[in-house]
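Bug #77: duplicate submission created two jobs. Keeping one. Sequence:
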Amino acid sequence: QDYALALSDPGENQKLNITITRNGGYTWSNCNQCADFPELAKGEAAFAASNSNIANYGKWVWIATGGVKSRIYRMKTKSCSWEVFETPFVQGTSSQGIYSLDFYDEHFGVAVGGDYKNQSANQNNIATTTDGGKTWQIQASGANAGYMTCVKFRPKSKGKDLIAVGDQHISFSSDYGKTWKKISDEKNLYVCEWLDENTLVFAGKNKILRMKIEL
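Kept job's structure:
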């Protein structure tokens, strides 16, 4: 794939530093020089989250932020045209907000996170969208295992099945993110990825795990 995007913390102008390549990395251009590139609020930033606070599907790229504000930034990949959307996610302090997001198609997406400094807190830390990130609906508030740092849709599930991982648990949803079940107490995992519809890989502190799921 020729297209790629990289981002880093905002500079003094309160804009994310974003560079884009459209030729496989041979040349890169600075994207935050676009006229409509939005400014972040003071205290708003993008969490690293093992590269999972960026999602891409079709013509869109989405970036999630957290901190004082937790919002979604959406860009058209060909035109570098930006939009920003508010979310009902937990936010307000430097450790709160969206840490990870994923999209099954151009319309249906999921976001997870919470409060890194209070990982058992599980209010307003999971949300889904059906309109490409414009609006978000809180799911399973108060009824999940807490802070999550990575979420991924299960391939070939039509968006029905999802896996999420946090420092203290692995959780699974089989109803489009509406309810969640903790399936493991494995700790210190930060990122997950599906190899196929039945095989997962997790990575974290000094370990890589492989899991088979048959559901």
